Amino acid sequence: MRRALGFGVAVLLIVGLTAVTSRAMGDAWTYGVGVESCGSWTNARRGNDWFTRGQWILGFVSASSYHGRRLVHTDSQAMASWMDQYCASHPLDNLFTASAALVDELEKRPER
């Protein structure tokens, strides 16, 4: 009985965590920290604890480029600074939305 109860609790925790870390965004599903708010980005940057979020954003930008978006080349610090400004103005947006806006910005800028 205890084993079954323990298994049931584990399943509920896994399902609950999955529900928190994935969400449909238009035609795309977003997983991981992409569902977190821009406010979480801003707080993480203040505490210099933004590596996981930063890597997720860089992966999103890289995947967008891989899938045909023609993006201007820049570095990770420039993208982090852009995210700082965006998230300061849009603290309730999630990181998926912010990253998509970053990709749009990188796509419309001419290559230097």
What do you see in this structure?
- With about 110 residues, the chain is mainly α.
- It has one domain (about 25-110).
- It has helices spanning about 1-20, 40-45, 50-65, 75-90, 95-110; strands spanning about 20-25, 30.
- Strands 1-2 form a two-stranded antiparallel sheet.
- Strand 1 and strand 2 form a beta hairpin.
- Helix 2 crosses helix 4 (about 75-90) and helix 3 (about 50-65) crosses helix 5.
- The longest helix has 20 residues, at about 1-20.
- It is globular and about 30 Å long.
- The termini are far apart.
- The model is unreliable at about 5-20 (pLDDT under 50).
Distance between the termini: 67 Å
Radius of gyration: 17 Å
Structural category is mainly alpha
| Stretches with pLDDT under 50, minimum 5 residues | 4-20
Mean pLDDT: 82
Order of helices and strands: HEEHHHH
Shape: globular
In terms of DSSP E residues, the strand content is 5-15%
Q: What are the SSEs and their pairings?
A:
Layout: H1 2-21, E1 22-25, E2 28-31, H2 38-46, H3 51-66, H4 76-89, H5 95-108
Antiparallel strand pairs: 1-2
Helix pairs in contact: 2-4, 3-5
Index terms:
single chain, 112 residues, mainly alpha, two-stranded antiparallel sheet, 5 helices, globular
Provide a concise account of the structure shown:
Helix content is 65%, strand content 7%. It has one domain (24-108). Strand 1 (22-25) and strand 2 (28-31) form a beta hairpin.
